[in-house]
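Problem 3 from the worked examples.
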Amino acid sequence: MNTVAEVVGAALPLAVAVALSPLPIIALALLLTSHRGRSSAVLFVAARLVTLGVLLGVVVAASDYVEHLLGSSGLPAGVRLVLGLSLMALGLTRWRPRPEGKDADLPGWLASIADASPSRSLVLGALVTVANPKELAFVLAAGITLGGASLGVAQEVVVVLAFVAVGGLTVLLPLLAALVAPERVGPSLDRLREWLTVNMKLVMGVLLLVIGATVAGGAIGDL
């Protein structure tokens, strides 16, 4: 039987991958540098954190149920191996250099987020999480890992909260910094947004390869 610390350690790389997902960071930077800034950004971050927790909780519950039906702990390791290899393959497909002289453009829906109302920001905070297939794969792998760890319900809640806390750091910390010192943080957020916009595919490619290898390696050790 795994301890909470062991499961948190296994899920931590996946939480870090979620935290480094470029789209939510870009969206938050756009919101914080817009005229509606703070209120919209607070709702955006709140919706993202809640959505992460709900998604992971659903995957954990489903994994627990499937394992109970099959009466086997071998399935999670096998599924994690497939997920890990799939993440690596997806990472390789993202590993394409941007053509020389071509500027990186944001998706239309993301470019318009600066004008989002607080209520729309709440919806966008959820959508930027559930509509991101690569991030969903990280959450799925974490949920299967947690579901196969034979923890009690209270322990699973602790791990979910830890995952959300780490996965949400890259939107929570900039938000807090912007609320405390908006004049100092604003230029840094602009530079970060521009860099992530240009290097979005590279960042996701590296994340997918590294996390995929980590998930697959852990699964092989558990088979």
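Problem 4, a separate protein:
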Amino acid sequence: MSKEWVTDVYSTIKAIGVQQVAYVPDAGHTQLIKLCDADPGIHSVSLTTEEEGVAMLGGAWLGGQKAMMLIQSSGVGNCINMLALIQECRMPFLTIVTMRGEWGEFNPWQCPMGQSTQAALESAGVFVLRADDEKEIPETVRAAALLAFNSNRAVAVLIGQKVLGIKDFNK
């Protein structure tokens, strides 16, 4: 499966002026994380838990910088309480979420949060855009970033598991 969308997303976030990237290590984001880590113009931080990223993005905004977070759907639940900070302070929040618990999932523990990720985010006041075709991803991320940074809103891009491929750790 082609991963050209990753370099397009990287170019998009650079063009929009993202200077900080918070992430929880994830196979679906590996290439994008490596690009951000290697870029001296981006301060990238590996988080121990996703809610730290919500606070980091808020701090970046208070410091005059644009930031985004890269997480997996299983970590969305960890962010829900912290999203009140984003909503009440009307801070921009941009996250790209790689989905689990969908297309050919082997781990049943991923299914409950995978099924409820979009509803949980929307219930917390987050605009959710979804890309289930790799050709849609760069433009979806661009639209999400513009919405987040121009309107000081919380926006999540969900990348469907079908795009990332079936994980099979039994090989």
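Solution to problem 4. The radius of gyration is 15 Å. The chain has one domain: 4-164.
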